[in-house]
Amino acid sequence: MNVRRLIPATATAGAVALGLVAVSACSAPTTDGRDGDGRLSVVASFYPMQYLAQEIGGDHVSVSSLTKPGIEPHDLELGPRQTAKLNEAGFILYLKGVQPAVDKAIAQSEAKHRIDAATLTTLEHHGTEGGHSHGTDEPGHDKHDDKHDDEGESGADPHIWLDPVKYAEVARGVGKSLEKADPDHAADYKRNTDALVTKLDGLDADYRRGLKDTTTKTFITTHSAFGYLAERYGLDQEGISGIDPESEPSPARIKELQAVAAQDKVTTVFFETLASDKTARTLAEDTGLKTDVLDPLEGITDKSKGRTYLEVMKSNLAALQKALGAK
User: Fold this and answer.
1) What is the CA 88 to chain-centroid distance, rounded?
2) How many CB atoms lie within 10 A of CB 113?
3) 211-324: same fold as 27-126+157-203?
4) pLDDT per residue over 164-180, tens digit each?
5) What single string gives the DSSP state of each residue in 114-164?
6) SS3 31
7) What separation in angstroms does the CA of 64 have from each of 27, 45, 53, 96, 129?
8) Domain range 27-126+157-203, CATH class
9) How confident is the model at residue 122 (pLDDT cuts 50, 70, 90)?
10) Does the pLDDT of residue 60 top 80, yes or no?
């Protein structure tokens, strides 16, 4: 029996109303973009932006995310409350090209301070269906950097947070933006930014060492989220679908992946935590391959192999080392 159905609707509505009053009394943003405790009210579009805001903002910010844990960011639709939250924010941090509904709402918001993370680094194109992303002979070299200055261009790959180097570039930009938005705490924001960049530099070094010598350089994954990571560390990404995790691969693409798996000694088909693993498992069964998780880190849930960005990225590194035959 569903006990919750026995609660009268009026009682439920009353409880919700009381809850809203309680929340608004202690933490609601004020008209100057600060919460009841005087902290800068920061609204992040989804987890990678939320992590940056929390790490850099520290005790001086109150961070909320538009995307709840377990929700696929690409599919997010905003309600009236979330739209109102954007208008009340003292600082908005988002990544244009990931969430169309969020991009539209932010463009119409009244927030004074808002920053698009895509403008803080160089976006590149890693293909649509298939999403084949070649690494370079020199890990760490962005082979398209001299060709692409089209930041935010439609169709560009938005998954910059999966490359620790690009993510560090974004972190520096976010830090400077917070310093301008809240100059009274600029020194702390700079200190926190430097500390985060140091952690990301360490993560980059771990990936370089961990993936330097492997049996194969090719990995197959559900959707083409890892193009920047592949380029950074000299790997080849083969996406079952394109950059959109919901797109379906063609029969020809499946056949092509089977050939790639045999030719490049691929051992594993990766799937992720927030999207369906059906296609990945079917491909693995048809080709006799293993399956494992490679998390695109669009959100942290109970299924995530880690509680923070750094923890999950280290888990991803371990999964790649195992699948690629790191020596």
Assistant:
1) 24
2) 17
3) yes
4) 999 999 999 999 999 99
5) EEEGGGGS--B---SSS--B---SSTT--TTTTT---TT-TT-B--GGGSH
6) coil
7) 11, 9, 9, 18, 33
8) alpha beta
9) very high
10) yes
**220 and 266 Cβ atoms separated by less than 8 Å:** yes
CB 45 within 8 A of CB 298: no
The rounded percent of the chain whose pLDDT value lies above 70 is 80
The answer for residues whose C-beta is within 8 angstroms of residue 182's C-beta and 6 or more apart is 40, 60, 61, 90, 91, 189
Out of 3.40.50.1980, 3.30.70.890, 3.40.190.170, 3.40.640.10, which CATH number does the structure's domain 211-324 have? 3.40.50.1980
Boundaries of every domain in the chain: 27-126+157-203, 211-324
Q: What is the pLDDT of residue 247?
A: 63
Give percent above pLDDT 90 in the chain.
Answer: 61
d(CA 47, CA 297): 8
In 169-322, beta strands by DSSP E = 218-221, 236-239, 268-271, 290-293
